Every structure is written in C-alpha cells, then in structure tokens.
Amino acid sequence: MCSRLxxxxxxxxxxxxxxxxxxxxxxxPEDADELVALRVAAMRPSLEQLGRFDPQRAxxxxxxxxxxxxxxxxxxxxxxxxxxxVRHEAEHLLLDHLYVHPDHQGQGIGxxxxxxxxxxxxxxxxxxxxxALRGSRSNDFYQRxxxxxxxxxxxxxxxxxxxxxxx
Length: 167
Prior knowledge:
The protein is an alpha+beta fold and about 170 residues long. The protein has a domain at about 10-25 and about 65-160: Gcn5-related N-acetyltransferase (GNAT) (Aminopeptidase). About 30% of the residues lie in helices and about 30% in strands. It contains four helices and eight strands. It has an eight-stranded mixed sheet, with helices on both faces. Helix 1 (about 30-50) crosses helix 2 (about 55-65). The chain is globular and about 40 Å long. It starts with 7 loop residues before the first strand and ends in a 6-residue tail after the last strand.
C-alpha cells in the first residue's frame, strides 16, 4: 500500500536563500528512466566514495520495486528536482527513496519532504523507517531529524523514528 503525501508544501518555510513552493506530482510508469537517472545522480558521490558506483546496479535496484502509485516527483519552480517514495507497511511508513538532484541539494527541499512524511506518520501514529547507504551524508541528515539506528549491514544502515508520544 502506498502512502499519500499532500499536493503542495506551503511557501515561506524553505531555506533562507529563496522562497520556494514544493509541489508533489504523481509519477507515471513511463517516468522510470528519468527517476533512475535522478537516483544515479544523487547517489553517485556516496557510491564512488565506497567504490561501489555501478549505474546498472542502481537502475536494477530502483526498478525492482518501482511502484508509480507510491512515487511522487518533487517539483520546485516548475522543475522536477527530486523524488520521494513512501510505502505504508504493516507497522510503519517506509521512506523507501528520497533523492534530491545534486544541483538542488542544501536548499531545504529534503527537509521539507521529510517534514511532510513525518507529519503524515504522526497522524497515523506510525514510526518511519528508512535505509541509508553506509558512509553517505544522508546518515547525518536522518539522525538530525530524530532517526535512531536500529540495524546495520555491510553497506546499509537502517533507521527508525518513532511518533511523538505527546502527538
């Protein structure tokens, strides 16, 4: 089951460099190649640092579970700048993918999307689970937003963020 995100994120809450309005646009089956290219661009530095950059493997891993109904383009200023995939699983929301194109990173887009996902989880009383590549800058990002490491493998770190018990 897919999780639904709001259609628009209000302006005025973006980074200090500029005002932004973040829209979520539904993905279509024919968007797969564009989304794979975005994933490769966003993950390339981390994968190269680990000596594991392989665009074919990155493509296969994304397409293996590509579900357009769970996937939203991140649109700022009419341009697709990222993607988010949220799946509703039995006991948590799975933040399966959150990629912002390198040209748009550091502008608060990822934090805004994550805030929406966390708000949705709060309303459902569910934790959010996410997996990050070991050594990636995304680990610091998720830890700054209250995620706690719950599992480790050779290449990945799994985090969980519980809903606020005070709501």
